[in-house]
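Notes to self after the Tuesday call (sharing in case useful).
The group wants a holo model before anyone commits to mutagenesis around the pocket. I volunteered. Ligand is nicotinamide-adenine-dinucleotide. Logging inputs and output together so the record is complete.
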Amino acid sequence: MKNLNGRVVALTGAASGIGQRLAVQLAGLGCQLAIADVDEHGLQQTMALLPDGIKVSSYTVDVANREQVYDWAEQVITEHRQVDCVINNAGVASMCSIENTRYEDFEWVFNIVFYGVLYGTKAFLPYLKQRPDANIVNISSVNGFFPFPRNGPYNCAKHAVKALNQTLIQELRNTNVSVTSVHPGGIKTNIVRNARFSEENAELIDKPSRVQQFDQMAKTSADKAASIIIRGMRKNRKRQLVGADAVILDILCRLMPQRLSDLVGVAHDRSRQGA
Ligand SMILES: NC(=O)c1ccc[n+]([C@@H]2O[C@H](COP(=O)([O-])OP(=O)(O)OC[C@H]3O[C@@H](n4cnc5c(N)ncnc54)[C@H](O)[C@@H]3O)[C@@H](O)[C@H]2O)c1
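Result:
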């Protein structure tokens, strides 16, 4: 989808971080926007950042709720008459070992990160197929191809998103709908601030220090991430890495998958001993 001017983009997770910057940049390129999030106040903040003269509709939608996502898709068609692109971006994480993760936290992450993307894809696909050319952009992560310790639910859900994307790419070959699987590295957003930290592991995983560690480690701004994702969309890329750390990790995974996993495991053990 080279030319974005006048295209209608449905975007989830638009109240913060990467989603908010995607909304601002897409509006700047002349897209009509249908933005959605659970955070109503954050959506209002995003609306205030958008230029005048662009048609924008804003919806409070919980992407984990299938009915709400399908209702939203219908409302978007009623309001904008068409949809050319869906960006399934909303996401959450939980920080805990698999042994100590509560099932409710596993389900919370899976329902938003995987099922939210599945519902968004299936709800919009019939409308996307009616357009001359259309895009599905589903945000996975580097955790979608390389798992990190104490991130089990997120690792599993993001791997599932990658598998969903790869399946869609195969199944939608030779149609008008392109699929882009997006894999960001560390991006400076609220993802860790908004994450759940398991109670029983509080002495090992202290939230303020993890947030601080993440803020230092994440080198790519949300604005830069959004511009890389839009470039990938415009080129109909099947796979888009975001950030130098994602590119390096991808290379290391290909060169020495088990060695890399062992090294990350050792670093994890050392950080536990130092905790
Ligand atoms: N920040 C990173 O380092 C990083 C790395 C890889 C992938 N990602 C992915 O990028 C995407 C955007 O995350 P971000 O980093 O901008 O984080 P963020 O926390 O700043 O934004 C996530 C947005 O999703 C919304 N959201 C959460 N649950 C929702 C629900 N049930 N329904 C609707 N909206 C919901 C939040 O309200 C928030 O506005 C996520 O899928 C995340 O997993 C982020």
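Two things stood out.
The pocket of nicotinamide-adenine-dinucleotide is lined by residues 12-13, 15-19, 37-39, 42, 61-64, 89-92, 112, 139, 141, 184, 186-187, 189-191, 194, 218 (CB under 6 Å).
Residues 47 and 252 are 40 Å apart (CA to CA).
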